[in-house]
Amino acid sequence: MTSIPATGGPALPQERRLVTAIPGPASLARLERKKAHVADGVGTTLPVFVVAAGGGVLLDVDGNSLIDLGSGIAVTTVGNSSTEVVRRVTEQAAAFTHTCFMVTPYDGYVDVCEQLAELTPGDHAKKSALFNSGAEAVENAVKIARVATGRDAVVVFDHAYHGRTNLTMAMTAKNMPYKHGFGPFAGEVYRAPMSYPFRDGLSGEEAAARAIDVIEKQVGATNVACVVIEPVLGEGGFVVPAPGFLPALAAWCRTNDVVLVADEIQSGFCRTGDWFACDDEGVVPDLVTTAKGIAGGLPLAGVTGRADLMDSVHVGGLGGTYGGNPIACAAALGAIEEMRGQDLPGRARAVGELMRSRLEKLQAEHPVIGDLRGRGAMMAIELCHPGTLDPDPVRTAAVSAYCHQQGVVTLTCGTWGNVFRFLPPLSISDALLDEAFDVVAEAFAATA
Ligand code: PLZ
């Protein structure tokens, strides 16, 4: 079974069009092949096989056109097959595909590091190192913090998600499906309570004091190499910490010579309406991890931060065969050019306003929606049994399944699986977004 050649990108008709059930017969046939050849451990949220994508739609093998509210988990921020990404990737692939930057270097890698220094929070001297995946970036941020401080302990938070490698599994909070049976996990990882305004009702200062108390009493400030935090939680439920939480934590880190690592892998690169989520409160982390949105769909990740910290590692101590692959770097330079040229932080704010107004209306009509939160084009609703904080993952799954059947790609998240998250590509039109939220509204009505 070979895939049907199709052209994606912004020129793809921007419409929701259902010509079969979802998934259709051609996708179902391919699903059988997947079952035969792909490990069951690799799941799929919505098993329609894609042949093209762009703007705000995914086209499947049956000819269905689905509206994308997931961006391949916050990756295709500039859209799928965006013009500049395609152009630069094509040119780069024709020039050369790989040399290994550790063997013979090339400009693209250095260009991306220069862009990262410019775009990440703070105007201090910065340097970067590039990797393939978010988890790898997080691992390397920890390596750098440990060398720089001579300390071992890593502090992470409740509901955190940092990856699926051994160290990052230890840093990730949720057991199923990420950690179950995969231990033993890396040591010297400690978990502090996160600010979760909907559930704890604490101010940012109070929540920070609670977290700092746990760190000081259970770990000891002088043992801590780094505090690693997602400034807006991703997989853990799009929780936005109460204002003041991140600044207080940053101040504590500074006082105690602890490296503050902002994991901006999901929240970074325009998603929240700023270049990075930390910008909202002017927090300047020592190190920032990036991936996902950075390269328009190609695998690239980075650690960027204070030059003195980055340079504390011995020559040869950081790297990997493919880290900063030339094609991935070309894609990143194309994606960043589009983000700048089209003011995608501004577009994320506009998308956020549209989504918020639709979701506020929905919340007023459906008491199962306990919380509406998020920033920019990173928005979520948390479903609880009305009037309580008891999670309702069953309703969440039902609403999501309805959206899928109606041709809208939606994602859930959260420790209890009861959070509906919305992270459309920023290349989506307002009309398509409106239509997607009509479907979400229908889904709530139909599953009431
Ligand atoms: N840090 C904040 O969101 C990846 C994971 C999907 P990788 N999130 C999506 C899944 O089920 O595997 C993520 C993240 C934050 C780190 C990561 C890890 O990034 O590129 O998936 O390794």
Helical amount: 25-40%
CATH class of the largest domain: Alpha Beta
- Summarize the main sheet: 7 strands, mixed
| CATH homologous superfamily heading of the largest domain | Type I PLP-dependent aspartate aminotransferase-like (Major domain)
- Which fold name fills CATH's third level, the topology of the largest domain? Aspartate Aminotransferase, domain 2
Please, how many domains?
Answer: 2
**Would you identify the regions where 5 or more consecutive residues have pLDDT less than 50?**
none
* End-to-end CA span: 41 Å
| SS class | alpha/beta
Overall 3D geometry?
Answer: globular
What's the total helix number?
14
Number of strands: 15
The whole-number mean of residue pLDDT values reads 97
Query: What is the H/E order?
Result: HEEEHHHEHEHEHHEHEEEHHHEEHEEEH
Proportion of residues in β-strands: 15-25%
Q: Strand order of the main beta sheet, please?
A: 4-10-9-8-7-5-6
- Give the C-alpha Rg: 21 Å
Brief characterization of the structure:
This protein is an alpha/beta fold and 448 residues long. The chain has helices spanning 25-37, 71-74, 83-95, 107-119, 134-149, 166-171, 197-200, 204-219, 245-255, 307-310, 326-341, 344-365, 393-405, 430-446; strands spanning 50-54, 57-60, 65-68, 126-131, 153-157, 189-192, 224-229, 259-263, 287-290, 301-306, 369-375, 378-383, 408-409, 411-413, 419-422. It has 2 domains: 2-68 and 343-446, Aspartate Aminotransferase, domain 1 (Alpha-Beta Complex); 85-341, Aspartate Aminotransferase, domain 2, CATH 3.40.640.
